[in-house]
Amino acid sequence: MSRESDPAVTEPVPSPYRVPFDGSFDIADAPTEPPRDAPGKKDAKRRLEDLTEELSDLQRILWAQDDHAVLLIFQAMDAAGKDGTIRAVLTGVNPAGCEVYSFKQPSSLELDHDFLWRTSRRLPERGRIGVFNRSYYEEVLIVRVHPGILDSQKLPGRPDLETLWQQRFESIREHERHLARNGTVILKFFLHVSKEEQRERFLARLDEPEKNWKFSAGDVRERGHWDAYQHAYQEALRATSRPWAPWYAIPADDKPFMRLQVAEIVVAALHGLDLRWPEVDPEEKARFDEMRAILEGES
User: Fold this and answer.
1) Structurally, what CATH architecture does the domain formed by 27-297 represent?
2) pLDDT tens digit sequence for 172-188
3) What distance in Å separates the CA atoms of residue 16 and residue 102, rounded to the nearest whole number?
4) I need a surface site. Which of 29, 101, 137, 254 has the fewest CB within 10 A?
5) Residue 285 burial by Cβ neighbours in a 10 Å radius (0-12, 13-18, 19+)
6) All structural domains of the chain with their residue ranges
């Protein structure tokens, strides 16, 4: 797809961590650590502060222009840092212009609909930044690792599993392309943490009282399915990273570096929209002097 055939679709932001669009992504080759020439933690934090201020300004123009929405999707293994990254990157954005949704186990009402329904209800409005902490991708990740979950989804004429995953990938691609054509900029972040780093973060949750609340025995049990999850992520990213909805596999073992990379991509995407403050209608602008005189006359 090119911009000539789909002029409403923005160009994907270039990045060394952008997942290829040709299905060649290999998760084993994707780094979990920053490169050697990466900025140090202090420099990364300073740069992130500058970017959050810039993002705040860009969001105000996005709101005023009111013809695009931005959807940020975060997926990762447990303890990769989704919550902290969302908080750090969007810390300066006007809460009225940003909506964050975290998707947990589906409710009975949600199970009475197709798998895209519950997230479709939470899509951002034009002028806003929407954030999905987990998303419809859970249906080709955790459900793929634990296919017994399908028993509660009431699927008529359920196909074999491999066919089902391919059908869901197709539905996701078509869904995201439709959103992009209608003005939603989609950026998807896979925060790629190593198994050893996850182990250390789980231990920290046990050892540090202020982190105890984050610990769940279920998270440790899921580590036993590590390889299955890695395969599921690889297949999902291969099948659904497209120019209109690119995936970025961000190294997540170093949190300041990870947050900086996410912020740089989001800011670059907003700059790619060529955002401008709306121009006032000439007839309305012609009345400015009249309105100024009325207001100044009140004093």
Assistant:
1) 3-Layer(aba) Sandwich (3.40)
2) 999 999 999 999 999 99
3) 28
4) 29
5) exposed
6) 27-297
